[in-house]
Amino acid sequence: MRTVAVVLAAGSGVRFGAALPKQLLPLAGRALLEHSVAAFDQAPGVDATLVVMAPGHADHAREVLALGGYRKVAGIIEGGKTRPESTRRAIAALGPAECKVLFHDAARPLLDQATIAGCVRALDTYDAVGVAVPTSDTIVVVEDGRMTGMPHRDSLRRCQTPQGFRLSVIRKAHELALADPAFADLTATDDCGVILRYLPDVPVAVVPGSERNIKITYPGDLSIAEVLLSAGDSGTSDSGTSDSGTSDSGTSDSGTSDSGTSDGGTSDGGTGAADQ
Length: 276
Ligand code: CTP
Ligand code: MG
What we know:
Layout: E1 3-9, E2 26-27, E3 30-31, H1 32-42, E4 48-53, H2 58-68, E5 73-78, H3 83-94, E6 100-105, H4 113-122, E7 128-134, E8 141-143, E9 146-149, E10 157-166, H5 167-178, H6 191-198, E11 204-208, H7 219-230
């Protein structure tokens, strides 16, 4: 079955605070956005890439991607005001034919091949898949400034992207979400969250992610990404990929490695795949 990667790049980067959306800023000699597009270009399991760009910046992206010579870019469309809206526009642009679709945040430029391959493979068996890493920190629930719960750490994961789906399944979930007036208030709901909420009988597989797959949210994250890229990807282990507790045991990515940085260094703190 055909697999399409959707690179979500329609945010405006408010927290980053630059003059341009962060996905157009340079990282290691090319635009941030290009790193994800290049990763999918190189992925044997991916047939085409659709880029969802911030309104008003599609021409800029078109220029940058044409110069880069990426073979699989099948289209560049404008996204919406929220991430779910951008996802919905991509779903509409993909048309009726069934396929596997991987939604990836352009803000995560250090996507590795093993993670992509793991997602594509998991979609042979599952209709929905998310990428996640274990948390080494203890996570607590805080309400009104007080700790009210401490979920067992072994059951917790930090979500990354890609998130992958059978197109018909994620389309159905978004249709149900759109029909729910409460959905608009769920600002931090990503696509796996839409499945969990609106199609709860659909199992969502978990593919091990990588500690390198950080999200660029604040300017400091870009400096960390530069360091990770210049350190290359050999020689060290990655705690994110050795998670025997994931539900997709067939997707180990021993081929990946990690320069050993911990997420504590990023200012995102691992808040999830798709904060708005
Ligand atoms: N995104 C999108 N459409 C939106 C909002 C976000 O495609 N309306 C994409 C972003 O471009 C990014 C990913 O979703 O690749 C994750 O979003 P985030 O890191 O929050 O980026 P921004 O929304 O741009 O940043 P901020 O929230 O600080 O404005
Ligand atoms: Mg955002």
